[in-house]
Amino acid sequence: MIVLGSTSEVAQAFVEEALNKGEKFEKIYLLTSNRETTERFARHIDVKFLQQAEVIELDLMKEIDYTRFEKISSGLLFCATGYLGEGTEEGLYDNKNTERIIDINYSKLVPVMNYFAHKFESRRSGTIIGLSSVAGDRGRQSNFIYGSAKAAFTAYLSGLRNYLFDKKVHVMTVKPGFMATKMTEGLPLNPKLTATPKQAAASIFAAYKKQKNVAYVLPIWGIIMMIIRNIPEFIFKKLKL
Amino acid sequence: MKPNFIQKVTNWGNYPIVEKEMKSDDSFRKIKEFIRDHNEVIARGNGRCYGDASLGEHIFSTKKLNKFISFDRLNGVIECESGVLLSDVLEISVPQGYFLYVTPGTKFVSVGGAIASDVHGKNHHAEGCFSEYVIEFKLMVENGEIITCSREENADKFWSAIGGMGLTGIILTAKFKLKNIESAYIRQESIKAENLDEIFRLFDESESWTYTVAWIDCLQKGKNIGRSILMRGEHAFQHELPQNLREKPLRLKKKFEPTVPFYFPGFVLNALTVKLFNLLYFNKQRKKEINNFTDYETFFYPLDAVHEWNRIYGKSGFIQYQMVIPKETGKEGMRKILETIAHSGNGSFLAVLKLFGRHNPEAYNSFPVEGYTLALDFKVNSKLKKLVDQLDQIVEEFGGRIYLTKDSMSRSSLTNYLRNTESSKFVSLQHKRILNNK
Questions:
Q1: Which phi-psi region, left, alpha or beta, contains residue B166 (left: φ > 0; alpha: ψ -120 to 50)?
Q2: Mean pLDDT of A187-212
Q3: A188 and chain B in contact, CB less than 8 A
Q4: What is the pLDDT of residues B169-201, one digit of tens each?
Q5: How many other C-beta atoms can be found within 10 angstroms of the C-beta atom of residue B299?
Q6: Are B236 and B97 in contact (CB under 8 A)?
Q7: For A104, B84, B93, B180, which has the most beta carbons within 10 A of its beta carbon?
Q8: How far apart are CA A81 and CA A110, in angstroms?
Q9: What are phi and psi of A177, to 5 degrees?
Q10: Whose CA is closest to B112, among B172, B58, B168, B160?
Q11: Rounded Cα distance, B137 and B246, in Å
Q12: Residue B85 in 3-state DSSP?
């Protein structure tokens, strides 16, 4: 298994869920920009599941040395890379913020995804799971830079799914909705709409087993987003969402 | 949306509720910054203590410190971060033939919390407190420095943090010993006792058993006072088990675990329903004595099977009152306590009696002292403070003390046994309350 964004609590919970459910991996490759925290996780799964893992540095904001990834081979990729950044009020006119959001969620991420997609294409098997966001389903005034980057990522995953279909590689897009993670800590989230990383992981794993194309973590989000997508633009533009 | 870390925080009894800052992180650097930037910091694990312990102005939740560090499967030594729950430890240790030496009545407490409360279990008379099996832990102290504490290294910090209620720093990681088991089952005997004399006699007779505990029907009066069921148990050896359990003795089947879906309305729990519950519970066991095998979950953690059971007490919450009365006058004290409760009509769903063994003099902040301990749940209502006051009076008279981990309204003279924990940085609401009421 290959994990992009290994400090993500959802990614870690997904790894644990898969191992709990008896999935076997020769090795888990944990790609991360935070070696210290990720090494603690690698040790954790070694203690808990006797599962070997290797930590490999990957900082999207720096020059990427692809030779480090050459030996990596696996039939499952889980991408949880993401960056929320500042929302509209604080961050809209801050170019650094805008660039960082677009880079981490899309422009710097996609080439890395492509690198691994190529490996999957050559294997002619496997599954790629990408965490996108409900924020990408429609641009809203509160966080549309993040939303637009995620929208691009959603479109990318959809295209990749289409492209890899007859190469026997499955691509799954996950739109988690609110999750109680580091990214959202301290935000006033409605607990009924918010999944814990553990719940999210269980739901994503079940969707992976069913080979779903697009999965929401809590089913309620599928309904909420269907409504939001269908609000006519002349009304939507007046809403404070 | 700017993050706002102020939130409603409450421990397991849902009383009291405070609106304070609570933050969590798994980076030691960030924890250091949190300590540096705030005064009055207190660590909190899984919030399974009762009352106002672990509440404070600036709460640091160790929930994200949830990783294992090592497990020596040959010698049964495990090391993990402080937010790991005892249930997480059991999940990996039981299949390997290891169990916790000491466990409280819920497995959903964090390892850090178990040390800070120096928890005890049904085997205190035989095996002491949690701290007996702690080899070392890492503590982040006032200046953000991380120190290793053991019996040899920083021994003064080691002993003041044990039972120190988080007032000496934030425990980050801990290493402790586990005990060998051959099976995940307990050989159990349950014996009915008609009154206090009989249950005390049974406790004395059961001294050689590793685990003993009694459930008491605390609404009985007169000659029936102390009507109870004693449960005693031993980890079962593989050869003792019935054939159907013998093949996979260390694996338990997954059980259905219901969740209480909402806070029960206030009127559901009253003197009548508690009385009815106690009657049913006592008569559920028809025979005087039952011998059987039960899995460790049922034996140690019967209440964990119902998630969020604290909601049955309604939104106003409940307190747990746990005291210990020294052995010499213990029986007399217990009788007085039980009489007072029966008289008040303020029944307790759960009343648990235990015999504590000797206090470890090194672990001076630990709650248990040799004697009898009783734990009671009381729903919070307008009459409760008066009852607690009456009970406190008796405990004081008999030279007893109150368990800080469950305290929320007892008089400070019963809870001020803590020493060497004074800090300008680590302060809990409980500690402030105790100091103010002195």
A1: left
A2: 92
A3: yes
A4: 999 999 999 999 999 999 999 999 999 999 999
A5: 19
A6: no
A7: B84
A8: 11
A9: 75, -160
A10: B172
A11: 37
A12: strand
Which residue of B lies nearest to A87 if distances are taken between CA atoms? B1
| Closest to B233 in 3D by CA, of B126, B331, B154 | B126
**How many residues belong to chain B?**
438
> Is the CB of A90 less than 8 angstroms away from the CB of B2?
yes
Nearest CB neighbour to B67, from listed A44, A90, A185: A44
Q: Determine the Cα–Cα distance for residues A20 and B116; give it in Å rounded to an integer.
A: 31
What ipTM goes with this model? 0.91
| Segment (H or E) for B298 | helix B296-300
| Closest residue, chain A, to B68 (C-alpha) | A44
Q: How far is A53 from chain B (nearest CA, A)?
A: 14
Give which of B322, B312, B380, B310 is closest to B354, Cα–Cα: B322
Place of tokens 């519970």: B281
* Cβ A168 vs Cβ A120: under 8 Å: no
Provide the shortest C-alpha distance from residue B86 to chain A (in Å). 14
The answer to whether the bond into B95 is cis (omega within 30° of 0) is no
Among candidates A118, A95, A152, which has minimal Cα distance to A2?
A118
Q: Which of B24, B25, B67 to mutate to test the interface with A (most CBs of A within 10 A)?
A: B67
- Which residue, among A162, A185, A181, A152, has the nearest Cα to A80 in the 3D structure? A181
**pLDDT over threshold 80, residue B271:** no
Q: Record the tokens describing residue B332, joined without a space.
A: 């007399």
What's the average model confidence in pLDDT over B22-27?
93
Task: Establish if B77 touches chain A: CB-CB under 8 angstroms.
Answer: no
Residue A43 in contact with partner chain B when CB distance is under 8 A: yes
Q: What residue type is assigned to position B247 of the chain?
A: E
Residue A93 neighbours by CB under 8 Å, 6+ apart: none
Tokens, residue B354: 């235990």
The tokens describing B379, both together, are 């729903």
Q: Tell me the count of A-B CB pairs closer than 8 A.
A: 41
